[in-house]
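Provenance

Sequences were taken from public entries as deposited. Structures were produced by running a predictor on each sequence independently, with no templates supplied. The record for Phosphoribosyltransferase from Arthrobacter flavus is shown for reference.
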Amino acid sequence: MRSTSATPRKFDDRHDAGRQLAHALLPYASSPGLLVLGLPRGGVPVAAEISAALSCPLDVVLVRKIGVPGFDELAMGAVATAGGSLSTVRNEKVIAGLTGDGNAVFEAACTPELAELARREKLYRAGLPPLELAGRTVVVVDDGVATGATLRAALHAVRQLRPAQLWVAAPVFLGHSLAAIRSQADQTFWLRDAPSLGSVGQAYHQFEQVPNDEVQRLLRRPPE
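Predicted structure for Phosphoribosyltransferase:
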């Protein structure tokens, strides 16, 4: 596992955070078959900076949080897809606390999110096939990690495609998420471990929502 030195200042924006992460990853630019996967939407600008700095391909791993009906911010789990591999991560503690049949509630909540994954796959890929991940060094990138539920689903989906190495890079980790993610990645890169921050956005000066057309533009940009 690897880390970068911590920095107390806020990131200007996602591109600034991506450039800082890219600097930490530069010694690994020659890793076999290096490939960067961003989590849309916020992780893609960060991933694009890493892809450009390391002159390696950029792609996406699509993830959707499964929220409790009526309390969407409370995650029951997440679903993810990468290279045709679908993965589901469940928060059994939350599901067990639901009123009625928790499994049925979870499955019902998954249905629209799976449809949204399919829609975004078509939107972002524009008919292009996903990149082959087997035997490659894959870096999964997000703009920050709060609970880690969506990122864990992404890692599970990618791991099923048999990469040689599965790495994680994120500018900031909140709460206890860093320990949970490090246990599932071969290497982890970060700039700030901030257990006391209330949200990922608090680590940034600018943290506006990334529009879909910006994600599409960045995915079409060739490595520099």
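The helical segments are 14-25, 43-54, 92-96, 102-125, 149-159, 177-182, 212-220.
The two ends are 27 Å apart (CA to CA).
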